[in-house]
Amino acid sequence: MRKAYIDNLRAGTVWLVVAYHVCYLYNGVGILGNIPGSPNIPVMDAAASIVYPWFMMLLFTIAGISARYALSKRTTGQFIRERAVKLLVPSTLGLLTLHWVTGWLNIKLGGGLEYIPGPLVYPISALSGTGPLWFIQMLFVFSCLLVLLRKLDKGDRLWRLGEKCGMTAMALLWLPIFLGAQVLNMPVLTMYRFGIYFIAFLIGYFILSHDSVQEKLSENCMPLAGAAVMFGIAYMILFHGKNFTEPQCLKSHVTNIYLWLAVLAIIGCGKKFLDRETRFTKLIVPSSYGIYILHYPVLLTTGYLLCTYLQLPAALNYLLTMLAGFIITPALYWLIRRVPLIRWLVLGVKGQ
């Protein structure tokens, strides 16, 4: 079961991730991983701060919805085998094939190459080259845990119960979201937030995968959007100019209400306004997964070259890096798709 608006939201969010990572590379609010000494534009930090609380939450929620659709026409074994190829292979073997470049550049920019013996540079670079692949690593873990939950819930009672969820109940789901934000967060590697992302994945699977629930969100999308804007303003007042990846921000009541209202509003508005296919969506939707996998090495390499060999104004650095992400990444995807073994290692794609 495929729904055009789900595919469109996923693809749009992936391109938003690309834009976010441009701001991330040049951030001036103290987030680890930026290019040292790179010029910064504060308004771009504000833009990154606005989307950071909810865009990965949206991807995990959509992944939960999609998992329900996938399991409706696949056996458990087929589901896990497909996820292993699509998620596990690129996030493990792909590190050795391509993403070691990300690790190598991060080590070089941090001044660590001179302390690593030559024979260990490549393996350490590969191990540290995960970058945005943390998302598909976690998604594979969540898919395996979902299979275990389905075995415990053989009658599918939880999913049928989710269909009864009304607007008030959906809004109040911010509470488990908030509780999930407090637990199972890895230190330093703040992107690995197992608690909140797993809850978003489960909500997508058990509740938001119902047509009737999606219809309710569609009918109420504008009030939800208005409420999300209000809490977004409160969020920005509290955390503008601060490191928005720190626990103080991520565990805040205001942040979690804002992000959950934003997720509900975006899904509702997507259902209402984006539930159609066009020539443009037919072009970008099939490539969105590959764009997610490949964009970060392209952005980081571009940023490194610009800041190391050219002395450009900050605006040009942002613009050229953004153009690289939007032009070179699709070209790289097009190329890798045509190389049999490489496409399997990097993208988890077996056939043509």
Can you lay out the helices and strands and say which pair or pack?
Elements (H helix, E strand, L loop, with lengths): L3 H22 L16 H10 L3 H17 L4 H34 L8 H10 L6 H19 L4 H6 L4 H6 L1 H8 L12 H15 L2 H9 L1 H19 L7 H4 L2 H21 L5 H6 L3 H22 L4 H23 L3 H8 L5
Task: Tell me about this structure.
- The protein is 74% helix and 0% strand.
- It has one domain (4-347).
- The mean pLDDT is 96.
- The chain is mostly helical and 352 residues long.
- It is globular and about 60 Å long.
Quick description:
With 352 residues, this protein is an all-alpha fold.
Offer a few descriptive terms.
single chain; 352 residues; mainly alpha
- Rg estimate, integer Å: 20 Å
Describe the oligomeric state of these chains in a short phrase. single chain
Pairing-aware structural class of the strands and helices? mainly alpha
How many domain units?
1
